[in-house]
Amino acid sequence: MKAHGMAGHLIRRLNQLSTQVFSKHLQDAGFDLTPVQFAAMDAVITHPGIDQAGVAAKIAYDRATIGGVIDRLEQKGYVTRAVSARDRRARDVRATPVGRDLFDRVLPIVEALQDDVLAGLDAAERAQFLRLARKAIGEGAGLAPSAPTE
Questions:
Q1: What is this structure's pTM?
Q2: What domain range includes position 62?
């Protein structure tokens, strides 16, 4: 099949693998967090008081659907939202103490599972892959993010 050698197909497959590895490791450790929720928590903790649109921009996620991600994080008690003092139409998002604690416990697991995502590559190949992936994403940065599934 021709598609199997195409970048889009291989990237989709790598995304599937990455999501499966992430989910398995976090479930095995007793955590209920998706890769998108983890990325959103990272943005919220790294940029306290960031608004929802800012979270979407930081994680390259669709602005129209980020509200649902934040809703689920809020329902779990990991974040709170408040009307922004800068823009009454916006909602600032902050990590709760529970959310910060969760993130601190999950981060080492996520860091460790990175080797499993690229298990078929040696250390030099992993470094090269990451460099090339960053380069490819940078050149495609002008494209609007789509609405990926959480």
A1: 0.84
A2: 17-139
